[in-house]
């Protein structure tokens, strides 16, 4: 292996990681809204949580991304710790899908149908289709589909480039000795942990292991401990994302680490005992690409079988490791972790904006009551609602600006711009509520009385304003165009 082979390997690795990132981001954008609704319907049922985590991770091809989302949902109070435990377990199984896809690169057969499954046969077609979708078709969904195809084609090209470049390593004694060293289970686990912690993706590190397996120097005895370590290394992403979160979110990240750490310790012990007791013959055989994918799947499946009945124990363990603080646990309405999945972040902005709209409308309705009856004791409630809308305007405005700076689709960009305008309108509604309250307080302080005729007109005006508020709120909450069209005639009546 010369310097050119080394450069080719680095280039292949770069293409592989870039393609995986490109495909993952596009998949998240396509599935983002559905992810939020799926997670929102979660129950404490273990099987439902497990299957949800499995399905989401299989779709977006990243257990780290799923776990980071879970940490964000727990931090925002949208998911309980118990629900998070089951989703994280499912994510560990879902992440194994990537290794099976990558194992297609190891197909070698003269059969025409089998040859068609080899990436070198269909990658150019996918890349061509991806360019057509991305460059020439309109619409975010079509462009995201193009990005998925391009990302997958880039990923598989990088995988094949890596595999071709490392073929010369098989004759280098140092490389052979390295994987003899990794037959020591502890060394293998540490190597897998370190590599995955650095690149923050167990799927990518398994792919690298599969590429190295092409040399024929990676035995199952060395590969299995490395795979175990990769499961520990992937926890780094969630642990980093939990910095600055509340206790429950930190516990969710710690569930991921505890699950993988306990599973690795148990099955590594079994592996070592089997190796010492009767040393299965297959451990000395060269690992194939499908074999590594199978080992990855079996290990994660066994960990889940072991830990699923103990999900309650895991929950209690992390609660003990991260005890409640002296100060009450706070929840973040808008979590920056969602920014990595823009469609989920935008959906969360919409939910907060809906609460802001209801709060502002409630404040204005209460102020109309006080204006008609200055003795009504609603001043404190109105001012609290106005403060709440000010808070919402501040956090939503900042968050939407951050979101708009991300690479988001045209429809998401328009939705973000619409929400930015609307939150200003909602804040003005709450300000008007305080203005009416101050007018009512001035009437009471000066002991002024409104005439009966004026009270009658005010009643009519209040009913019209109430109806406008209800129609406007319905139009926003339900995207009801008919309700929106009914607002203007009422406004003209008030004028």
Structural account:
- The structure is a single chain.
- Helices cover 78% and strands 0% of the residues.
- The protein has 2 domains: 319 residues, no CATH class; 114 residues, Methane Monooxygenase Hydroxylase, Chain G, domain 1.
- The longest helix has 38 residues.
- It has 22 helices and no strands.
SS-based class:
mainly alpha
Q: Tell me, what's the shape?
A: elongated
Radius of gyration: 29 Å
Mean pLDDT: 84
**Helical percent range?**
over 70%
Work out the helix count: 22
Low-confidence stretches: none
Number of domains: 2
Q: How is this fold's topology laid out?
A:
Layout: H1 3-40, H2 46-60, H3 63-75, H4 81-94, H5 97-102, H6 112-116, H7 119-136, H8 140-165, H9 173-181, H10 185-199, H11 202-213, H12 220-233, H13 235-241, H14 247-277, H15 289-307, H16 311-321, H17 342-372, H18 379-404, H19 410-445, H20 452-478, H21 481-485, H22 487-494
Helix pairs in contact: 1-2, 1-8, 1-17, 2-4, 3-4, 3-13, 3-14, 4-14, 4-15, 4-16, 7-8, 8-11, 10-12, 11-12, 11-15, 12-14, 12-15, 13-14, 14-15, 14-16, 17-18, 17-19, 17-20, 18-19, 20-22
Name some characteristics of this structure:
495 residues; mainly alpha; Methane Monooxygenase Hydroxylase, Chain G, domain 1
Précis, in short:
The chain is an all-alpha fold and 495 residues long. The chain contains 22 helices and no strands.
